[in-house]
């Protein structure tokens, strides 16, 4: 009897030691940051494709109805209070979005982007990074602003770039790409919203007409991705570079520097509001979702709220695996029926 008791106590002690060592390892090595989370290491929350739908000049949507965009926010992470960079000019803002550096580092202006080919070896765009990591990937850019086809990016990394055409033509080319090609990374940018703001004032009826049209196109964009069975393997983001006030957006007013953002992908929580988002974060979110390490000079962040969600989800998975392993290893008849530990 005493021998049985000693054996039982020793048995419990071994389990205790195992648990402590496991917990120490997990907490110190795996779960301290999202970069080291097994969710990234095991690639269980990563994607095969990224689709980025950009609306120039949409700001925080200015209380527009845009039902498709607002419904999309409920499927993943979102903010209506994000921040762009200064100065709030298109080249500076889009440049910071895709190079994940401040304007003084990428040095793009509207005039430069429209007239000079990109040749800065000191910065790396999301598109170039994707090409380096996936040499055979198909990468596409369809934009209404000609700068995207001249000096915004390293054009040699694309399979196809189309720019300097109307929104409906841009959209048509982007949709054809989704339906008939195999995009790893696709960027589509619409410009009518910003043009309407410059022509008729931002947050006016004509502006809202253009914004609602962009929302309708986003709905068709999502439907095309769904029809190709890409939804379960894709990160989809909808972004804007800046807002506007009266007929301008070059100043630092609140209506100009505030922007919306939404993203959804495999395993994302629903309707999770994120805080402290800036346009600098877009490239990093996309890069990490594709499993790529990012350049050291990138200053964007991965949303803390999303990172914490994935870490917690991984903790729950690890708990279950360890409980089942412990119960099996030490001879308990039913997994999870005796010892349970929690991170």
UniProtKB/TrEMBL annotation:
It comes from the Eukaryota. The keyword rRNA-binding does not apply. GO terms for molecular function: hydrolase activity. Keywords: Membrane, Transmembrane, Transmembrane helix. The chain crosses the membrane at residues 5-26. Coiled coil: none annotated. InterPro entries: Alkaline_phosphatase_core_sf, Phosphodiest/P_Trfase. It holds the Pfam family Phosphodiest. This is Type I phosphodiesterase/nucleotide pyrophosphatase. It comes from Tritrichomonas foetus. The lineage of its organism: Eukaryota, Metamonada, Parabasalia, Tritrichomonadida, Tritrichomonadidae.
